[in-house]
Task: structure prediction
Amino acid sequence: MRYSRQRELILKKVNALCDHPTAEEIYEVAEKEIPGLSLGTVYRNLNVLADAGMIRRVSVPGKADRFDHTLRQHSHLYCTECGCVEDISLDDAAILKIVKDGNDSVVDYSLVVFGTCEKCRNKSAM
Result:
């Protein structure tokens, strides 16, 4: 992969924004440092970085893709109240075993659980 200043900045922003940002959110903060940066450039570079395994794409059906700097296998919670995406602890080894049972060609999986985040649960408890 060739070096580009834009790609380096976009990777830096994904690493700094620990809340699984969308391309639009990354664009909003990166454009301040590189005026004239286009949203299309952000999308292209995020795809290149995800394809190269430098970031993870978190796909939520019907919503914009999110991007994650944590490369180890893990699952996510999509909050149906506020729309945030956060890491959740599940037995990832057990999930991978279920996914791989009978299919040795599976090398990875992506699991997004829909529910309510702790912040929204705490708000509704008040």
